[in-house]
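Hi U.,

Before I forget, here's the chain from the pilot set. I'm dumping it here mostly so it's searchable later in email.
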Amino acid sequence: MTNRLNNIKPIARKVGDGKNPIFITVIAFLAITLLLDIFIIDGKVLDLLAYFYIALGLLFVLYGIPLLYASRRLIQYYWQRASKNKLAVGGLAFILFLILLAFIGPLFTADPTAINFEEKNLPPLGFTIEESVYKLETEQFITTRITSTREHPLGTDDKGRDLLAMIISGTRVSLQVGLLATGIAIILGTLIGVSAAYLGGKVDNILMRFTDIMMTFPFFLLLVFIVFIFGPNLALIVIVIGLTGWTGTARLIRSEALSLRTREFVMASKALGASDRRIILFHLIPNVISLIIVIATLSIPGVILAEAALSFIGLGDSSVASWGMILKAGQQNLDTTWWVAVAPGIMLFLTVLAFNFLGDGLRDAFDPRSNI
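Structure:
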């Protein structure tokens, strides 16, 4: 058995050494395909967000899974600490439910954009409403009772669209924007923060002054301005939020990395001739990963609310049903179809609460001074 393991180790080492060329090759291929898709084929190959999924998925497979496997005992230890926080466990369970709902929900629901005026304003199961309609023939108002149906358990809006299907579509949109935009912001903020802390001097001054300039712009107003100029597109919203939401992450990561750059393991790596790139990627970033996880978890609710706010004011992607767009439609008819605004409002509230509970639990679990 030992001989077999010894035979496997050189192969695993070769595969590990080949991760960077594989990643660069696939990213270059995706970039060329994306350019052809935009300027020549006119978007007929893949949706823009699909390129992000492929790139982030490859990044996770090549670098995330090996790191998680190597740190499996530490992960188990932190999970034991985090699991003592019942609110964090409840938040994680709700987030997993949302992910499951986003994946399998569309298989069991109707098209969220399908319009059927014959079934408009149907109430949720268990509710009955009265609607007054003016008849030209009799020149009188006729009151009719509208009851719920099992085909639309959460009811329909004023266009007859199934609210359950719209909520599930909004779940997918919120998770896409929240996870992808936060991922972009976390990667940028981590690289800028760690590089500024380790390299110091002029590099630190330039990067931090640029961060200060970015922080002077009101985040939401900048987001509204860019989306207003280039048009409401879900992929654009993800990119803009990711490229403008990294400043806080960069500052927090820099402050943490400043205390690490003079540690013995960093000085030993320098003495052994390790390059700055290797020290940043393989020594500093892994030692701030706990802070990165907490920042990411606590940043996702803000991103989800930003996308919902954009959709609510009419700057969201009209081709998809998001929670903000449903809220806007429900707000316009709140006196007659209250359930259209209540359902996405509850989902937004619970989602933000779940991520905040999970972030607080992870922060306590990673903090060695916390008595849990």
